[in-house]
Amino acid sequence: MSKESLQWLNDNTLIGFTDKRGTAWHYRASLQGLEPNHYPGAIPVADVQRRLFAWDALSRPLYVEDPITGGLAEVPDRQAILRSDTGCVMGIFSDGYERHPYREWLLEMIARLLNDDLSIGSAGLLRGGAVAWVSVEVPDNIRTPEGVEFRPHLFGATSFDGSLATTFKRAITNVVCDNTMATGLAERGQQIKIKHSRHSKPRLAEARQALAIVYETADAFAAEVKRLCDTVVTAREWSAFLDAYVPVPVEPGRSRTLAEAKRDGLVKLWRHDNRVAPWAGTGWGVVQAVNTYVHHEQTVRGVSRAERNRLRALTGGVEELDRETLRMLGRVSARPVLANPA
Questions:
Q1: Residue 316 located in a structural domain
Q2: For residues 217 and 152, what is the distance between their CA atoms, to the nearest angstrom?
Q3: pLDDT digits (tens, 9 = 90+) for 109-139
Q4: 80: β partners
Q5: Can you give the pTM of this predicted structure?
Q6: pLDDT exceeding 70 applies to what percent of the chain?
Q7: In-domain check, residue 32
Q8: Contact 110, 120 (CB under 8 A)
């Protein structure tokens, strides 16, 4: 797995609507080239095509060294998928694997779904170009009476390394902390997945249906925020939650040191950080503390933080994190907090 550098993120991601949500956490003015990757408004479809998806994913036969002749022998029923511009091999598959080119499966489909109220809000490449996403968003932030500002959107994503089926999924961006959150914490987010198998084809009607729910998502999320902000969490319940979420080993050692550091990080967010502290003492504050800690503070190994966060959003890790947080809060407070625990 690649570890995306700050230079990669500034070159290979496009961030729109910065007038509404500010710059991404990885933005560095010194790493911007002649053409900045941040847009005050919507990202033009043509820019995504030109700056990110201007190359092709090619299928090529796979060869290995023949131990008898010293030459090359073709591996039957296997193919390598590589970038046309760099020659980088992104994945090796059986001959039944079907490529889903980014321009056709993401950009062209997304372009057909756009209207006056929806535009491209972000797009990017990860893992050396083996994973790509495009996000459709409403132009304006939505702010609840409880002071939570968010943006509902629809992700379209796919891969050439086998890590993702082509996926269209609704999600929420929490503006104050630039976190991805579950669309409705009481339910699993709606999504469609299309495998990279023979005879697969873009399913525009299903993607359009998922896109329509972007509008419904705003109402569902706002209602969930209100319900959780109305859920009082006492100091005793917060302490009990910490004990359950981050148990501290009795014996001194590395495990105890790591647990204490994690608890300290959560407590600092709860008491002092404007991404969490305004909602301390509520169920929303607990969700916000854990989501923000995992998103921005927790140690990430093996992949970059940007890659980990984006893939969690697409594969359901974000939803499960938020739901498990509420399950645990319900257990320690001895009352139901997750509206739909199934």
A1: yes
A2: 6
A3: 878 777 667 789 999 998 899 999 998 887 7
A4: 60, 92
A5: 0.81
A6: 88
A7: yes
A8: yes
